[in-house]
Structure formats: structure tokens, C-alpha cells
Amino acid sequence: MRALAEAGPSERATAAQHAKGKLTARERIAILFDEGTFNEVEGLRRHRATGFGLEDKRPHTDGVVTGWGKVHGRTVFAYAHDFRIFGGALGEAHAEKIHKLMDLAEAAGAPIVGLCDGAGARIQEGVTALAGYGGIFQRNVRNSGVLPQISVVLGPCAGGAAYSPALTDFVFMVRGTSQMFITGPDVVQAVTGEAVTMEHLGGADSHAAASGVAAFAYDDEQSCLEDVRHLLSLLPSNNRELAPAGDREDPCDRRCESLLDLVPARPTQGYDIRDLIEEVVDHGDYFEVHGQWAQNVVCALARLGGQVVGIVANQPAHLAGVLDIQASEKAARFVQFCDAFSIPLVTLIDVPGFLPGVDQEHNGIIRHGAKLLYAYCNATVPRISLILRKAYGGAYIVMDSRSIGADIALAWPSNEIAVMGAEGAANVIFRREIAASDNPEETRAQKIKEYQTELMHPYYAAERGLVDDVIDPAETRSRLIAALDMLRAKHQQLPSRKHGNLPL
């Protein structure tokens, strides 16, 4: 009986799954877990529904494989929809299996991975199927910030089913085979008249680059699931544990001489912040989150001195590294995740300000920018900020400045901390003098230089205690690691409250 359940409904159904470029549920589980470690739960479960022919079709597993195993030697729980059975649609028994698994994961204090490939609620079971989704959502929320939750969308995920991935910490998708949307193309066309394909409406690249729902997009399931394993290796099992430490073979005192030339001294010249991150972190290895979305800020997990850290960095190579609505949301969610799971934060600052524009203002840049500010102010993990070059206006404050609680604030000698750039400041402060001058351009240049000399020299903030030290760029790695080691036992308690009121 067990062998029949593991084999699936038929060879024809398996061939049809493979013909779509998709693996079966058990093939996916075999890639996710360490070999031979998966333990199935309720593999012989069958539904009890009647009507519409269901009483004559009662396959084992009821369309979802659930259980636990090891990933890099640590316990992880997973459920995988089996599209070969009822199209992976969720019924009462199917939902109860997932509820059971999520409750086990909560009791054991281990991550949950959902391998999603289902056609939504099982229509033949009516409202009981919808209630099954409610139980999943409730558990998603209850375990939020308690257990790492990862959704891997490997097929259709439509309607109410899409809200479970939206409630989890990270969403993975595969190009060409994954689609996620609330209403499908037919409904969209009927209501709005817009003709759209499933891939354009809810495909991997649409959600990875446009909506920000997906954190990662891949060309095939194998590489997708391998990266799920890699991400799990960087995360703690729960919020009571620390992320697993790596080796310290990359010397902590390694000098980064290339940084001296990597960041241009001229504030308007762009560069790729990823090159700097790669130079500083252990073995040049980092794992970027939401790499295709809101590219003016980079969020990544990496190790420094063997310790997992979350890196938030402005990206001068895209929109000059300004903060806008999407970048603020992306960084805020990442900061909040790191804080929930005790992952220290390293913030690399090179920000000219918030993106100006009527669209930004009318779409709520104030409210969305406040999400990032709230996330940093609310974070109790070790927080280290490093000002590389520009740090202007409110965007500087929001990017974990010393004034909002960064534990250690460092700066390079090229830093420019000010309300705004020298040219803009001079035009405001000395507007009348410039206008009355016989040679306005010469006067403007003189006043710009005067403002730079008085307020924008590299040591102005250090002299006032807003920066702890101005460091040699080549020492960046060693100084960051030293600060992280010092803050390893940091403990900060927020005032007693039910919860804050995040500006959603």
C-alpha cells in the first residue's frame, strides 16, 4: 500500500507532469532534503468527501506529501502539493495534513518549506476547502517571526492559495512553470478588457521584478531547490537560536586594498555596491534577496568572521542609490526579518536622498519611507552602519544613522554627511548674495566651496559624536568583524506593549 502511495496515481500522470517541465512532489522532496532523511507523515491519508464522483476517487496522500527531514544536517519540515492528484487542489483532508505538519514544526522549532503546485481550493468540497486555507493562514501568521517560512511556487498558485506564500518570509519561483495571481487572465479580460498571458500576469519575472512578491526567480527547479537549501543554511531554526556559524578561514584582519579604488571620490559617479560587498564578506560569498526588484537598494545575507549578517546597502549603479517607495519597502521587510531571527545588521550608506516626484509623493513615499525608519528603530539586533560617501537629508537618518540607534557608526574619509549636497545648499543659503553678485557663477562656486569646508568635511560628524570613527577603507572588513564580535551578546528590551503600529 505504501509503495502504491509513493508511486503516485499512474505513469501517465507522471509523464504529463514531466512534459510540462515539472518534477513530481517526491522528486522535489528528494532534491530538498539530505539523501535518505525524509520521514513522511500521513502518507496513507484519504479524503472522506462524497458527491460529484469524489466517493469513487480516493487516492492515498490526497494530493499533498508532508513530512520532515534534514537539510545540511538540520531538521526542516516540508509539504509538497502533488499536481497529479486532483491537480494539487486543497480539500479538507489535504488541508488537515498541512495543519498537522505546521503544528509539528512549531512544536519542534524548525523551518517550514511549502512546495506549491496546486489548482487552489477543491471546488467539489465547497466551503470546507476554503476553511482549510484559513487554518493555513492562521498558522502562517502565528509562526511569523518564530520559524523561518519559505514558499517555493513550482506550478499554479491562484486565488486564496496565493496568500499563504505572501505571508511567508521568502518566495521562490521558476520561470515558465510558476504562476501566482488572485484572478486569472480570463477574469482579468472579462472585467477590464485587458488581454494578458498567465506568465505576464503572474509569472516568476513579473513577481520578481515588478510586484516584489517573489524574492527569487530561476530557470529550473533543480537550481531553485538547491538555493532553498543554501538559504536554509544561513538561517536559524527558530527565533530562539542563532544562525549556524561558518568557518573563519577567511582572515578576519584581511585588508581590502581594492576598496581604495572601487568607490569613486566624485559623489556623482556610479559604481556597483555588490563589488564592495563581495570584497568584504567571507570568501566573497553573499546571497542577495529580491535582486530584480527595487534595485536601488541591495539586501543580502552573508557571513563576516563566520557570523551570518544581513546587509542593507544603497546601490549607486541604479537610480544613484536613492530611496523610493519600493526600495523602502524592500529594505524594511528585510530589516524586520533579520531582527526577528537575531541576525545582525550591517548598513552601507551612499544615499543622495529620497526620490523626488509627484508620483512618489501621491503614492505615499512618506508612509512607505516610514516603514524603513520604523523597522530600524524597532530592531534590537546588533546594528553597524558605514557611510561610504554621500549621506544626505532624511534618507541618511533612515539608513540606520547613529541618531536612530545604530550601535556603531563608521565612515570612510570620503563621507559627506549633510542636509543636502553642497551645490543645492549653497543655492539656498546664499541665494541673494549669488543673485546680487557681478559674477554669479564665480560667487556660487566660492560659496559651494565655503559650505563644503565648513560643514561637509569628513570629520564634521565625528567631532560631534555622530560617527564613532573615520576609518581606512582597506580596514573595512576587520573593523566590521571587530564590532560584530563586541556586540555578539547584545541584549536590548523594548517597552512592554502588545505590538507597535507599523505604518502599513
TrEMBL record:
Record has Oxidoreductase as a keyword: no
Query: Which of UniProt's keywords are assigned here?
Result: Plasmid, Transferase
Region Disordered, residue ranges: 1-20
**Pfam families xref list:** Carboxyl_trans
Domain CoA carboxyltransferase C-terminal: from-to ranges: 251-500
Family matches, as InterPro entries: AccD/PCCB (IPR051047), AcCoA_carboxyl_beta (IPR034733), ClpP/crotonase-like_dom_sf (IPR029045), COA_CT_C (IPR011763), COA_CT_N (IPR011762)
Q: Which residues form a coiled coil?
A: none
This chain belongs to which protein, by name?
Answer: Methylmalonyl-CoA carboxyltransferase
